[in-house]
Amino acid sequence: MSQRLQAAIHPATVQPDELLVAGPVDRIAYEEAQRLDYRPAALGERLGPLWATYWYRVRARIPEEWHGRRVDLIWASRAESTLWLDGQAVQGLHGVEPQQRPDATVTRAARGGETVELGVELACNGLFGDLGSPPELERCELALVDEDAWRLYFDFEVLRALEASGELEPDWCGHLRAELNRFCNEHDPAILRALYEHHNGTRVHEIAAIGHAHIDTAWLWPLAETRRKLVRTFSSQTRYMDEYDEFRFACSQAQQYAWIKEREPELWERIRAKVASGQFVPVGGSWVEPDCNVPSGESLLRQLVHGQRFFEDEFGSRCREFWSPDAFGYCGQLPQLLRLAGITRFLTQKLSWNQFNKPESHTFLWQGVDGSEVLAHYPPADTYNSDVSVAEVLFSRREFKDHESSAQSLLVYGFGDGGGGPTRAMLERLRRMRDLQGLPRVQTSTSDTFFAALEAERAERAVVVGELYFEYHRGVYTSQAFVKRGNRICEQLLHDVEFLGAVRGDFPREELDRLWKLLLLQQFHDILPGSSIGLVYDDARRDFAELESTLASLVGEGDTPVNTIGVARRDVVDGRMIDAPPFGDGLVVEAGDRVAVDALTLENGVLRVTLGEDGTIRSVVHKPTGRETLAAPGNRLELYEDRPVKFDAWDIDPAHLETRTDCPPADSWEVLSTGPLRAEVAFERRVGEASTLRQTIRLDAEAQRVEVHTIADWHEEHALLKVCFPLAVHSGTATYEMPFGYAERPTHFSTSYDRAKYEVPGHRFADLSEHGFGAALLTDSKYGYSCFGNELRISLLRAPKSPDPSADIGRHEFAYALHPHVGDHREGGVLAEAMRFNAPLRFTRGVGPSFASVDDPNLVLDTIKRGERSDALVLRLYEANGGRGTARVRVGCDRARFANALEDPLEDATVENGAIVVPYTPHQVLTLLLQ
Ligand SMILES: [Zn+2]
Fold first, then answer.
1. Is residue 563 pLDDT above 60, yes or no?
2. pLDDT tens, residue by residue, 488-537
């Protein structure tokens, strides 16, 4: 019956009078495409190569008897296409099946007898990039639409699926079955209409359905294709809005809007009109949907600052929800950062993929490490690409875990990941699910309406505290190492340029705006994690090269060192570091004691380090305490088989833990520097099948850390290289730096939650401490760590083969260091040491050695910059130790105000004797505006 009803939708078709094609060409503008040479096209012609484009011209006469009727173009191809009418992109097309998008309305009321001319831009890729084999154009025709048959088909389909669901009460199910049978015999639409008169009782689960097209800003296609995906998706969706008044479409990622604004002014105006009418709904408040573990705290804030600013400038309002359905876990500072950017609501979905422990609630209060809360919701359909089937709507209700406290959940529907968005069929099904007995009530809605309804519920919510660790995709802290390195370096460079510009008075505002946005783009949740195809990383290499060179020139290191500065971070100061200056010899080194070398033993006033000829570190004695740091030789390089069952670039599976082999000893060693300021020994070694490592182990005068600088020539397949330091330290938890703070995680596998954390994210340090003593590993560009028992490890390199077969192959440079210390990571000053390890000493003119200072070790002065929209000096501080108190910040000003991250001024700060009085609470992030 379904098939018969479906066939009746298009009762007549005509072939085009003329079908022409030009190409293959690159991605070109419509105007340029008009000047191509067109030739007759044939159906079934194989099109390629991948990423090529073909432009079609379709000329067809609409039969006179179709007067007044709706006419569709049927365009069946596995490729993604764009329909152009009168020079405008009007709709995206993809696929050959009716449930895909092989059709587009040409006219809703034909004159009859007219000839239509259509343009179709066909990209030789599918929604998910490479189609595997060359696409072809399978059908191209005009079709008459029987709108009664169209509606009847959905009337029947929704009821049939409901009857077959197995989730109905027997009385209603029996009646439904009998009536559907009667319809199949009698074909009377009134039978179906009568069934839709059966509504729900007074209390029923309510589903807010939000149209969406998750468009990965880059993933299995490069940025340039994303821009076309935006055109296809947004033209389709604005078009459906004309036809379906109730349709609401949520769209995140300011970057994507910005591209349309720059490049597609006409489509941009259509979007603006639909935003004004309330149908096209900007959401998310961030520049892209970023990875939420690897970017620094300041980067995450800038994602929100630039996102909110764009939405406010262009649409007159800020977003109230963070829209992040697909990122791979969420750090525990995020609730506070969101609140500081005016966001109180949070939507994700990804944690439903957890391997060990599924989330216990779909609606809950997510509390960050500082106590800030946001209202969080996971759509219980476990997808952000719902097709609005009866089965999925019923699944949502069945799986929803909070029926006792809530009667509402969200359904995010539409083709996504590769974009596309809702289809007319989805919108038709939604119309039939508004209030039908046995189904939840399903209403089209917006995120704002949905969260407002949740807030209005009188409910005891579950409270979830701290990071939302994603029990999956643990390889993304390590894959595509150059992106991680670029991210770390550029975050530091942006920091330095902002600081120097702010204090020198040459703050390059527009350029910084551009460069920040370029870095924020790289932090997209498939670029920074390393889960994209090679083409994406060609773009990323280009972008990071531009960022690094432009930022380095903006730092503007002069040819004469005037003052040394440790930039704007507490403790990162003045001549304490003894790297050779990049120019001249004006550096004052205040190293009181010297480093001595005795063959393979390096010693300064703090550490005595003994190396093995095999390249291990045999002993690290912390002289102030007399403690030996290592329980067994450290700098143990380990190779693991890294063959995830499913997602190559994404996953490090638990099975890898059983495949460890230690790398063979170094082939040779040589002493490179013998002091008195620096001692270095270099080791050459082979690793794996075809790789080599050159490691230089360094101890500087006065240094509190022993450094390992590595150049790797990496040519492995499905291998994971880790370095292990077995520490003479016992503790049930290890500590890892996270954005504006730290996360503590277990060092054992006692429960399923502990076991799940066999590989975890961290920033510049990972620390294992017991009472009185501990040791940290510091890194300059690594983000994947693990700790089991007393063995602390860094994941250094991977070699996944999919989706980028050449991922991580080639040359790498990275450094790590072992830092033994008194007390725990707080008392031991681990954060400051990690900052010093990452912050190069810079030389510049005209900056005093101590531009700003904070008198309290708990409070880190992280960022100094000029205002986003004003010349005010902006200071960003955060409480780093989990303490409470009042700090004094000296920076030479009379008036200071507290602000949120968007730099909206809040209350005045007290200024006493030239110092700003800053009361703070545990893990608080603070912004000060100085006049
Ligand atoms: Zn995504």
1. no
2. 999 999 999 999 888 888 899 999 999 999 999 999 999 999 999 999 99
Q: What is the distance in A from the centroid of ligand 1 to the CA of 621?
A: 47
Q: What is the widest separation between alpha-carbon atoms in the chain?
A: 99
Edge-to-edge strands, sheet with 853-854 = 853-854, 885-890, 915-920, 905-912, 896-899, 925-930, 873-879, 859-866
User: So which residues are the catalytic ones?
Assistant: 326
- The pLDDT value recorded for residue 595 is 86
pLDDT digits (tens, 9 = 90+) for 659-677: 999 999 999 999 998 878 8
Rounded Cα–Cα distance for residues 315 and 252 (Å): 13
Q: Which two tokens stand for residue 99?
A: 């449930």
CA of 34 to the centre of ligand 1 (A): 34
What is the pLDDT of the chain when averaged over all its residues?
94
Kindly report the backbone phi and psi dihedral angles of residue 72, in degrees, each rounded to the nearest multiple of 5, phi listed first: -110, 150
| 383 alpha carbon – ligand 1 mean position (Å) | 11
From ligand 1's centre to the CA of 526, what distance in Å?
A: 7
pLDDT number for residue 51: 98
pLDDT confidence of residue 894:
87
Contacts of residue 287, Cβ cutoff 8 Å, sequence gap at least 6: 253, 254, 255, 302, 303, 306, 307, 310, 517, 520, 521
CA 290 to ligand 1 centroid distance, Å: 9
Query: Which of 259, 262, 306 is closest to 284 using CA atoms?
Result: 306
- What stretch of H or E contains 156? helix 147-163
Q: What's the pLDDT tens digit per position in 88-101?
A: 999 999 999 999 99
Q: Prior bond to 40 cis, omega within 30?
A: no
The yes-or-no verdict on residue 543 having pLDDT over 90 is yes
Alpha-carbon distances of 418 from 89, 128, 249, 700, rounded to whole Å:
18, 6, 16, 51
Q: How far is the CA of 689 from the centre of ligand 1 (A)?
A: 34
Helix axes 534-555, 481-504, angle to 10 degrees: 30
The number of beta carbons lying within 10 Å of the beta carbon of residue 645 is 8
Measure the CA–CA gap between 75 and 137, rounded to whole angstroms: 7
Distance from residue 900's CA to the centre of ligand 1 (Å): 29
Pairwise CA distance, residues 670 & 843, whole Å: 32
Q: In the predicted model, is pLDDT for residue 584 greater than 60?
A: no
What is this structure's pTM?
0.96
What's the CA-to-centroid distance between 71 and ligand 1, angstroms?
35
Task: Note the pLDDT of residue 839.
Answer: 85
* Cis bond before residue 24 (omega within 30° of 0): yes
Q: What is the average pLDDT across 689-714?
A: 95
CB half-sphere exposure, 469, CA atoms < 13 A: 23
pLDDT tier for residue 848 given thresholds of 50, 70 and 90: low
Cis status, amide bond into 922, omega within 30 of 0 = no
pLDDT score at 581: 35
pLDDT for the residue numbered 565 = 34
Place of tokens 């690594």: 782
Distance (Å) from CA 329 to ligand 1 centroid: 12
- Measure the CA–CA gap between 339 and 413, rounded to whole angstroms: 27
Query: How far apart are alpha carbons 633 and 716 in whole angstroms?
Result: 25
Q: What percent of the chain has pLDDT over 90?
A: 90
CA–centroid distance, 218 to ligand 1, in Å, is: 9
Q: Which residues of 212-242 are buried (b: 16+ CB within 10 A; e: fewer)?
A: bbbbbbbbbbbbebbbbbbbbbbbbbbbbbe
Backbone phi and psi for residue 390, each to the nearest 5 degrees, phi listed first: -55, -40
CB-CB contact of 541 with 480 (8 Å)? no
- Nearest residue to 288 (alpha-carbon basis) of 261, 307, 262: 307
Q: Output the CA 327–ligand 1 centroid distance in Å.
A: 7
**Got the DSSP string for 669-713?**
EEEEEE-SSEEEEEEEEEETTTEEEEEEEEEETT-SSEEEEEEEE
Q: Give the residue from 417, 468, 474, 416 showing the smallest Cα distance to 648.
A: 474
